[in-house]
Write a structure and sequence with these properties.
The structure holds 2 protein chains of 2 kinds. By secondary structure, chain A is mostly beta strands. Chain A has 3 helices and 19 strands. In chain A, a hairpin with a 4-residue loop joins strand 3 and strand 4. In chain A, helix 2 crosses helix 3. Chain A is globular and about 55 Å long. Chain B is α/β, with parallel strands linked by helices. Chain B has a single domain, classed as Rossmann fold, CATH 3.40.50.300. Chain B has 9 helices and 10 strands. Chain B is globular, with a radius of gyration of 17 Å. Classes of the chains: A mainly beta, B alpha/beta. Chains A and B meet through helix 2 and helix 3 of A and helix 2 of B.
């Protein structure tokens, strides 16, 4: 069976049907390690990807004013227990364009594997990007994942990102995103992670609200059990009149797990406002007892609460 | 003689040296709405938590028979499966859980629409709403009552079910309490609101952890309004 077939078979682990790769109306890129296995583009979208021995370098450009009707699928991964994948990618959503990108990062057998992503994303004035990234790292916990990105959001542009790693192990995850928002722009960053055993998470997200009336939200939901560890840092800076930001971090800790949340708020303009809330602890007792009063066992109640938080 | 559905005898619960429930006796009959009146701090909510088996609410003395079975050794979810449930005064909020899912917990084939209509919420508007802080206090209360209706409990403890409900909607809440009885259940109704208490079949007044009056609701309300809580 080919690497492409193996990656296709793993797509359902991140909630995606393999058949999307056969649909000629849907753009995609599939890369295994540093080899590009499949690609397709649609009108208004340019995909320039190049293989090198130690990285894949590429550009994804949505031309000005174009609305890409179907999500663009980017499927990256390794189907072997060991190996390295490094992706360096520039994403440009030109003025007034709209696109949705679904990124699937699949490492189903990882025992000592590494995935590095360096992304620079530019969203032009009035443009919109919805970016959803789903990971599956298999059961072994041998994955190192380092997605780092810089995102620039132009005037009146919108950026919504949603990172999720909800089944299998995490391994070592080190996320570092920096998002800068210009006048009237919007950035919403959501991350949902369920960590087990000896998983380690370092998640740092920074939103810099540079423009007037720019808005930012960092929302993080992390559930930890076993001996997992997480350090979540959410930073929001507001530099202009009318800028509004919020940092919302919730971590549920079970077993011997440890968690820390560091919300950092910096305001540099008297008419800007940034708020934050952080909650770390076990499952809320009142929620638990409410469900038990409906006849659910403690284990069933925890499952319902956790699945809701990670939705 | 009909055996009481709930028979509480000599129930004592203390925090440190302070007795919150003090040799409390109370019975509730099948298909009875029983109002429980009492000032703040008299022990009403503590009694609800002890009955339901909430964490940290283990009595130091007395017994509770429910349908002839000793309730105290049972865990909270076992009591619920036995037909007892509690609707909190301030219901919990659940991030990510829809009203449809909340009402169908443990009952995958359950149709939640009739219960939602019964509490005055339009299923089209509410089934896919989340049971989180986006619901107002009144909406959350109604969803909680719909959740209780969906269980078809033998006995439900309603802790201030009309709290946060606008005046015009109180008659709706009263209809729901009567519907619980009509469906064959009993209700222990903890309330401060006279118009709610008066729908009960019987009422009792709790004072510093003991029942000091039981009788018809009118007399109980008058007793509660007219006298200082002194044992």
């Amino acid at each position: 069976m080919s690497d492409l077939d193996d990656l296709r078979r793993t797509l359902p682990m991140v909630g995606t049907e393999p058949s999307i790769l056969d649909d000629t109306s849907i753009a995609h890129v599939v890369a295994h390690g540093h080899r590009i296995l499949s690609r397709r583009t649609v009108p208004g979208l340019r995909v320039e990807m190049e293989e090198t021995p130690d990285t894949i370098v590429g550009k994804l450009i949505v031309e000005a004013g174009v609305q890409i009707a179907q999500p663009i699928h980017m499927c990256f991964g390794l189907t072997h227990p060991t190996g390295v994948q490094q992706i360096t990618i520039d994403v440009q959503i030109c003025e007034g364009a709209q696109a949705r990108v679904l990124s699937h990062c699949l490492f189903p057998l990882a025992q000592a594997a590494e995935h590095r992503m360096q992304a620079v994303v530019e969203i032009g004035p009035g443009a919109s990007l919805i970016y959803t990234e789903g990971h599956y790292h298999g059961p072994h916990g041998g994955m190192q994942v380092l997605p780092h990105a810089t995102v620039k959001i132009g005037k009146g542009a919108r950026y919504f990102s949603d990172f999720s790693l909800l089944s299998g192990s995490v391994g070592n995850l080190d996320i570092d995103y920096l998002v800068e928002v210009e006048k009237d722009g919007i950035a919403e960053l959501t991350a949902k992670i369920f960590a087990h055993k000896t998983d380690r998470i370092a998640l740092k997200e920074t939103v810099v609200l540079r423009g007037e009336r720019s808005r930012g939200l960092i929302k993080t939901r992390v559930v930890l059990d076993g001996e997992a560890r997480a350090e979540i840092t959410g930073i929001t800076e507001a530099h202009a009149k009318g800028a509004r930001g919020h940092v919302d971090c919730m971590e549920i800790v079970q077993g011997q797990a440890h968690a820390s949340a560091i919300p950092i708020v910096r305001v540099f303009h008297p008419e800007a406002k940034v708020t934050h809330e952080a909650a770390i602890g076990s499952v809320d007792k009142k929620e638990l007892e409410t469900l038990m009063a409906r006849g659910l066992t403690p284990e069933q109640a925890v499952e319902v609460i956790v699945s809701g938080i990670l939705r | 003689m009909i055996l009481p559905l709930l028979d509480i005898c000599n129930l004592t619960f203390a925090v440190g040296n302070q007795k919150i429930l003090d040799r409390l006796d109370l019975t509730i009959q099948p298909r009875e709405i029983h109002a429980l009146l009492g000032a703040n701090g008299s022990g009403k909510t503590t009694l609800a938590y002890v009955l339901m088996g909430c964490e940290g609410y283990v009595p130091s003395g007395g017994h509770i028979l429910f349908n002839g079975t000793d309730l105290l050794p049972l865990k909270m979810y076992e009591r619920a499966r036995f037909g007892l449930t509690l609707a909190w005064q301030e219901p919990a909020r659940f991030e990510g859980i829809t009203v449809r899912e909340y009402l169908s917990l443990g009952k995958p084939d359950y149709d939640p629409e009739p219960a939602l209509r019964q509490v005055g919420l339009d299923p089209e508007r509410y089934l896919n709403r989340r049971v989180d802080k986006t619901l107002s206090g009144g909406e959350r209360h109604r969803v909680e009552l719909a959740s209780v209706l969906s269980m078809k409990p033998t006995l439900v403890i309603l802790d201030e079910p009309a709290a946060g409900i606008d005046m015009l909607s109180i008659t709706h809440i009263i209809d729901i309490i009567r519907a619980l009885k009509a469906a064959g259940g009993s209700v222990l109704l903890i309330t401060h609101q006279e118009e709610v208490a008066l729908i009960a079949d019987r009422a009792s007044q709790l004072c510093t952890g003991r029942i000091i009056f039981s009788g018809n609701p009118r007399e109980a309300v008058d007793h509660y309004r007219g006298r200082t809580c002194v044992r």
